[in-house]
Amino acid sequence: MSKIMKNLKATLSYDGTRYNGWQRQKNSKNTIQEVIEKVISEVLDENIEIIASGRTDAGVHANGQVINFKTENNLNIDELRDIINTNLPNDISFNKIEEVDNKFHSRYNVKSKVYVYKILNSKIHDPFLRKYIYQYTKELDINKMIEASKLFLGTHDFKGFSSGKKTKKSTIRTIYDIDIKIEGNEISIFYHGDGFLYNMVRIMTGTLLEIANGNLDKNCITEIFDNQIRSEAGFTVPPHGLFLLKVIY
Amino acid sequence: MSKIMKNLKATLSYDGTRYNGWQRQKNSKNTIQEVIEKVISEVLDENIEIIASGRTDAGVHANGQVINFKTENNLNIDELRDIINTNLPNDISFNKIEEVDNKFHSRYNVKSKVYVYKILNSKIHDPFLRKYIYQYTKELDINKMIEASKLFLGTHDFKGFSSGKKTKKSTIRTIYDIDIKIEGNEISIFYHGDGFLYNMVRIMTGTLLEIANGNLDKNCITEIFDNQIRSEAGFTVPPHGLFLLKVIY
Q1: Taking CB atoms and an 8 Å cut-off, how many pairs form between chains A and B?
Q2: Which helix (H) or strand (E) holds A22?
Q3: Which of A198, B24, B93, B95 has the highest CB neighbour number within 10 Å of its CB?
Q4: pLDDT tens digits, one per residue of B51-97
């Protein structure tokens, strides 16, 4: 009798601080993928390979990363989640495991993603958020930031807002929504789009910050869509303010 | 002309994770007091001694610790705060500095203090809160916890709820209020009292947890007020869920 192969989808959170990003690498230890694959393989006593919705860079966090993996194991999925959590380091957590159709693929089936970038606009740092928010001390005109953010909406060539190597792959992406929330000194910029190029959220955020502090004019955004010159955009904000919040299928 | 001595009161936050508690010690390095005194002394080029509202133990956090210190320096207090913050490690932060009456003493003048102890009642840990909340996986009857918390209110001998060494000092304290807030799986227990003995908040919290999970009966609280037997109370919860929230003068 052949065993039945189940396809499991899991939603997870991680603090990216001490990892070399998501993606397993030949010469770099301590990636999130590697740590999780090792734990699941040991727990299930199978050689498990996991597929994620996409990689996150070194230092970037996630509240809603989605993976899938196939297993012959028949354990109850909530029990499996608890056993995996017990064995994971406590900066990685499985929130939910669901059994899904065998065809579900956590990368190919992505419809869109939501990222949030968090900024603390204050001279006073917050000891409890220091690894989860980017402290930016310069004065900001939030209205300028909101106005400029609208120019990113829609379908554009974001090549100038990425730090990718030369590639033949398309650099055209669609941004559905950018929502800027203010709570006291904290600014959270939510980006919802069909996909994001390498460093794209961090460069868009750096550009919005430089527009809001008067260093750049908002019209640079449409110009960079045309000329694709990375150096005309804002700086790349650091990874520790960035969270992969949600993957939509 | 003699210089004018100013008395400065400061409110500060710190992540206690990597420190050996507040109090400067002869044989133990890396206390919060030591780090702060070193920075202020360097910034002001004076030998500064700071007085805190009280010590916090190793691993305990603060959002509202209050200190005072005297200086001949005439720098603007907001500028002084910013310079101190720039020089402090980023797990300690000065929120505010005020000039106060020369007689103000941050320990002697304390009227009351508010601590909060945070519990995550879930099998799923939270990677972002792991150093700031105590994960407790057993099932809890919150109504039992709330009922029991009322027995702590008022003036009692809390000796059985402390792990202090034998002392002739009074172990009588008054608890004005205990407020239990629930947000999803997070339980925050706010303790407002005129003072707290060594480990008192952590043992009261452990006792409430054991009452809420059925391991202890709430009447043990009044019995321990009488018999002062530490071992009849609940366990000492770990320090990382505890925050000194406010000092009232």
Answers
A1: 54
A2: none
A3: B93
A4: 999 999 999 999 999 999 999 998 999 999 999 999 999 999 999 99
The pTM score is 0.92
What does the pLDDT read at residue A2?
A: 60
Partners of B71 in the β-ladder: B6
Handedness of CA A43, A45, A51, A57 (dihedral sign): positive
CA distances from A49 to A3, A211, A231 (A): 18, 43, 39
Q: Where are the beta strands (DSSP E) in A82-152?
A: 92-100, 112-120, 134-135
Encoding tokens for residue B182? Answer: 């629930």
Q: Are B62 and B13 spatial neighbours (Cβ–Cβ below 8 Å)?
A: yes
What tens digit of pLDDT does each residue of B118-131 get?
A: 999 999 999 999 99
Task: Tell me the two tokens of residue B59.
Answer: 């691993």
> Residue A192's beta-bridge partner residues?
A114, A177
Give B90's contacts in chain A (Cβ within 8 Å): 125, 127, 130
**Has residue B203 got a pLDDT over 80?**
yes
In sequence order, the β-bridge partners of residue A182 are A187
Report pLDDT for B1.
Answer: 52
Residue B82 has its nearest CB partner, among A61, A123, A127, at A123
Quick: pLDDT tens for A175-208.
999 999 999 999 999 999 999 999 999 999 999 9
Quick count: other Cβ atoms within 10 Å of Cβ B42?
12
Dist CA B70 CA B7 (whole Å)? 5
* Residue A169 CB contacts under 8 Å (≥ 6 apart), including other chains: none
Test A123 with B93 for CB contact under 8 angstroms: no
Query: What's the distance, Cα to Cα, between the start and end of chain A in Å?
Result: 34
Report the percentage of chain B scoring pLDDT > 90: 92
Total Cβ atoms within 10 A of residue B213? 17
Distances in Å between the Cα of B167 and the Cα atoms of A248, B58, B159, B194 are: 61, 21, 10, 19
Q: Is the Cβ of B128 closer than 8 Å to some Cβ of chain A?
A: yes
Residue B55 Cα distances to A212, A248, B33, B79, B245, angstroms: 42, 48, 9, 27, 13
What ipTM goes with this model? 0.89
* The one-letter amino acid at A96: K
Tens of pLDDT along B28-44? 789 999 999 999 999 99
Ordered by where they begin, the domains of chain A are: 6-100 (3.30.70.580), 112-248 (3.30.70.660)
Show Cβ contacts of residue A86 under 8 Å, excluding neighbours closer than 6 positions: none
Q: Which of A56, A40, A60 lies closest to A48 in space, CA to CA?
A: A40
